[in-house]
Request: fold
Amino acid sequence: MSTLAHTMMTAARSNDSGLAGPGGLDRYPYAEAPAADRAGAPVWEGAEPELGRVGRRAAGSRGRGLHGQLVQQLGQMIVSGDLGADRPLVPEEIGQRFEVSRTVVRESLRVLEAKGLVSARPNVGTRVRPVSDWNLLDPDIIEWRAFGPQRDDQRRELSELRWTIEPLAARLAAGHGREDVQQRLADMIDIMGHALAQGDALTYSRADAEFHSLLIQIAGNRMLEHLSGIVSAALQVSGGPVTGCDRPHEASLVHHRRIVDALAAGDGTGAESAMRQLLTVHPEVERVVPAPREH
Reply:
């Protein structure tokens, strides 16, 4: 195994770190909900007041700390339907329920608004937006949907999206491949093979996600490149129907190697074909959604 592969193998087992950066949070104008609406405020039963426990389950790209954990908790509740569009989200009540500061609540709501999940308007307050307004391509929302009541739709949609994006990316990448990039792809396969032998599913999935993300990035199409995060999120949550990527096995490694070999030969058709075989749904495997990933 190359030095790069060994380094990334080690890094894959490390926890992500970093706190959300500060900003002008108190300048963000979240209005107090009208008094008439406060009687219909959401009941927070079932939500976890000890946000540290939420953070240990998943903090993801939202960062560590109370802010990232509150985004995770509220995002899951919105996507699951526990917080409906007919109920106002009052920052003061959220802060009291989860025992966090006004600044943490405001910043968390700002993140959720950027994802299209909530909106804040003067004299109206903060409310959950309809699903049609959500940024369904956001990796966090992909994760929340994958483990919520919409998981069946999420699996189907992710599978269809990957089937559209990745074979095309593989074909285009055959014309843009460089030796250093091909070596990095090969390193990811080495990591996956070693992880498979060790029964290390987490390292396998992270190397797999890196492989597919890198392949899209070298396709030479900037619009496709912006979708690499979606594919990475899909792989890490296994939100789609079971494919050659979702369950580690030797056949999956064979298809990955065929893709790299085709790229080295400049064979776009072969790379596309190998990717389609890798993404073929295996009907004999039960379609289940795994437990949320650990970070």
